[in-house]
Amino acid sequence: xxxxxxxxxxxxxxxxxxxxxxxxxxxxxxxxxxxxxxxxxxxxxxxxxxxxxxxxxxxxxxxxxxxxxxxxxxxxxxxxxxxxxxxxxxxxxxxxxxxxxxxxxxxxxxxxxxxxxxxxxxxxxxxxxxxxxxxxxxxxxxxxxxxxxxxxxxxxxxxxxxxxxxxxxxxxxxxxxxxxxxxxxxxxxxxxxxxxxxxxxxxxxxxxxxxxxxxxxxxxxxxxx
Length: 225
What we know:
Strand order of the largest sheet: 6-7-8-3-9-10
Order of helices and strands: EEEHEEHEHHHEHEHEE
CATH superfamily: P-loop containing nucleotide triphosphate hydrolases
CATH architecture: 3-Layer(aba) Sandwich
Number of strands: 10
């Protein structure tokens, strides 16, 4: 699903700033890992590189059979639409669309016919416990419900890789625990691979394994908060 080798990223300026160096990661179908690290160490930069939103300065990223360095911007856009799913802290649910329409967006972007879109949206909303909220608007939902919408939207097009960046940062502890369990179960149950970026050790413990991002690359987390 994902292969990263010797990845490095630098930001130019009066003094060149190296953010990532020597990052290696392999994920197969069903793998679900958490990545922790100090603020500024490059966690969000790593996700941006995996998503093809930024370009690496060295090393390689392969998503399925696609080597990202070999793709132009249009091809990267197609890859994001077809193979990746995203869950963010801020939900990014469109306020003027009902829940079902929000979830259907990834399917519309890749040209899935309307009847198939309706079937898959209904299936995903049932899976995340929102079958009775299809016609509701975001303003009518709680934070936990909004994040369930975001998870449904991230998975409805059956991506091979799901990237979650602090997905429970805006939720209370009880809602966060429910969302983390749902995210894990849905990613693994659908045969995708998943990366959870988090500052929370409790959140990280929901993953199969936890990695620490450092200036020297990824290593096994030592278990400390």
